[in-house]
Specification:
The strands form seven sheets. This protein has an eight-stranded mixed sheet with strand order 15-16-17-18-19-21-20-22, covered by helices on one side. The longest helix is centred in the N-terminal third of the chain and has 14 residues. The chain folds into three domains: 87 residues, Immunoglobulin-like, CATH 2.60.40.10; 339 residues, Alkaline phosphatase D (PhoD) (Purple Acid Phosphatase, chain A, domain 2, 4-Layer Sandwich), CATH 3.60.21; 77 residues, Sandwich (Immunoglobulin-like), CATH 2.60.40.3080. The chain is 16% helix and 31% strand. The chain is built from twelve helices and 32 strands. Helix 3 packs parallel to helix 6. It has 556 residues and is an alpha+beta fold.
Length: 556
């Protein structure tokens, strides 16, 4: 049982107890934890962790329950990850495997349940992947009970792999006090949770601000700092891609035992080019760089540019913890400084060439020029879908918020487009010409009984690409809601007479429906009295046949 201390920015110290270590010892005494990473066309990395030393054999094959291949005997030491690369695999193939383990001073040959993985999909092949962000189990925001539900929901999606977009392992609230042992424990604490699905869902990681791996911290105290501690323990427990024939990424080795930092990388899978950025490591001016102080760094920018320009993939997806590393919002932050080129969010004072001479174009324009379809980020703890210059900016909800409203209340006002409360993950179903995106919500059983929602329900859906069937529940918006902000009356007007709204709901930040009514048949406009509504932010949900549109409403 670990005692951990968090220091808020107000310098108020809040002590609380985390039971992760007890959970690790109790659970792993039964079955070793298995984590998959670095899936490729012909190989995959398997990490095995147990508090007991022993011998391990990985048995695998292409048919369930039949394992015609196996590794040599692998020697595992207690509490140290045993890492092994399964090589010479067949591309675009599903494998099934078990781990046989015999603990030291015992004779029993035990077996894990059967697990599975898939090697790289060929171009045009269908597959699923999932994304979560901001688990925050190290502080009061994240709650393990609902996080377990989100993980189980992802496992049921049968994805080829998952991404976490950061604020997962680290805790930078006490940078001068946090030790290497603290950072080790913060990473180790997640294994009992993630290993519930990473035995069959390879894990990719994107660094967040709270991991502490930023350039400012990395330069402190000759390597005795949370940046170095965090990097080394992250690599130890959760290997990320390194540049090779399959992955590209950061090829610059670092001091203090780090070597390759495994912080940004790219790969293709099916018809998708995946690009994961690190928006913190190359910022060394201060711990929270602002405006033009923030940077990807020229090396990472050039790598991003080359990766995009050389990609022939039909779909291109870029991920980072957040545009510009700090701040709140999506497209409102995408217009300024290194990301957008303007000095300020107003978009009226272009200064990119002055502040980044010789670079070319800002990050957003680089993505536009090269046909990026989707940008994914975390940080703001709220589901928000926006669009700018043809690129969808998708912000992730927390997977572990048992209130369902932390980010929605705190940060929802920083977004336009579709903004929703809730907890869960995003599921991406990729076909040859189409990506279907689903916001899969998680609910605690008692909250389901209370009528707050059903676990696994779809909070919002949309599609990207040439989708041949109607798989979206997001209507193309031909509706105008005004005035917005409003005081007494709002008016809903349709500009397309072929659009026939059927019903209207107004939902508050607690997911309570405060208004529900029919849209008058054949009417071009409809008025609703909101004079008795409290000041704040609301969602207007409009049903149109089998689709829905969602609109943010502010009431004064």
């Amino acid at each position: 049982m670990k005692q951990y201390l968090i220091v808020k920015r107000s310098k108020i110290k809040v002590a609380f107890t985390i039971f992760f270590s007890v959970a690790y010892l109790m659970a792993s005494a039964q079955i070793p934890y298995v984590t998959l990473s670095r899936p490729e066309d012909k190989s995959i990395t398997i990490s095995i962790l147990s508090p007991k030393s022993g011998n391990y054999i990985i048995k695998y094959g292409t048919n369930p329950g039949s394992y015609n291949k196996q590794t040599p005997v692998l020697m595992g030491t207690s509490d140290q990850p045993l890492r092994h690369v399964l090589a010479d695999l067949e591309p675009d193939t599903r494998y099934y495997y078990v781990v046989q383990y015999t603990y030291t001073n015992t004779t029993a040959n035990l077996l894990t349940p059967e697990y599975t993985f898939h090697t790289q999909r060929s171009a045009g092949k269908s597959f699923t992947f999932t994304v979560e962000a901001d688990e925050h189990l190290y502080d009061k925001k994240g709650v393990s009970s609902i996080y377990n539900i989100t993980l189980a929901n992802q496992l049921s999606d049968k994805p080829d792999f998952m991404f976490s977009l950061g604020d997962t392992f680290g805790d930078d609230h006490t940078p001068e006090e946090t030790t290497s042992q603290d950072m080790k424990q913060l990473h180790l604490d997640y294994i009992p949770y993630l290993a519930k699905i990473t035995h069959s869902v390879p894990f990719f990681f994107c660094l967040g601000n709270h991991e502490g791996e930023n350039g400012y911290y990395l330069n402190q105290h000759d390597g005795s700092n949370i940046g170095v501690y965090g990097t080394n323990w992250r690599k130890y427990y959760f290997p990320n891609p390194v540049p090779n024939d399959f992955y590209t990424g950061n090829s610059h080795e670092e001091e203090y035992g780090i070597g390759l930092p495994e912080n940004y990388y790219a790969f293709t899978w099916g018809n998708v080019q995946f690009i994961v950025l690190d928006v913190y490591r190359h910022c060394d001016i201060n711990e929270k760089p602002k405006n033009w102080e923030w940077t990807l760094g020229k090396d990472q920018y050039d790598w991003l540019k080359n990766t995009l320009e050389s990609s022939n993939s039909k779909f291109k997806i870029v991920m980072a913890h957040h545009t510009r590393g700090q701040g709140r919002g999506g497209i409102n932050t995408a217009k300024a400084f290194e990301w957008g080129g303007y000095s300020g969010d107003s978009g009226t004072n272009y200064q990119f060439d002055t502040n980044r001479p010789g670079w070319g174009v800002p990050i957003h324009q680089l993505m536009v020029n090269n046909g990026v379809n989707l940008y994914l980020q975390g940080h703001d703890h709220v589901y928000a879908k926006e669009e700018l210059d043809g690129i969808i900016y998708q912000t992730m909800p927390m997977p572990s918020d048992s209130t369902y409203n932390l980010g929605y209340i705190a940060n929802g006002g920083a977004f336009d487009g579709v903004v929703l409360n809730g907890t869960g993950h995003l599921r991406f179903e990729v076909d040859e010409d189409c990506i279907k995106v689903d916001y899969v919500k998680a609910f605690l059983p008692l909250d389901t009984l209370a009528g707050l929602g059903k676990n696994g329900e779809i909070g919002h859906s949309y599609t990207i690409g040439a989708c041949t069937s109607s798989t979206s529940n997001e209507a193309k918006s031909t509706l105008n809601i005004f005035p917005n902000p409003a005081d007494n009356i709002i008016h809903i007007r349709r500009s397309d007479l072929n659009t026939a709204p059927e019903s209207v709901e107004i939902i508050d930040i607690n997911a309570q429906i405060l208004y529900s009514g029919l849209y008058p048949e054949n009417a071009t406009s409809h008025s609703i009295d909101v004079a008795n509504f409290l000041a704040g932010m609301y969602i207007v949900k409009i049903k149109n046949k089998d689709t829905f549109s969602f609109h943010k409403l502010i009431i004064h």
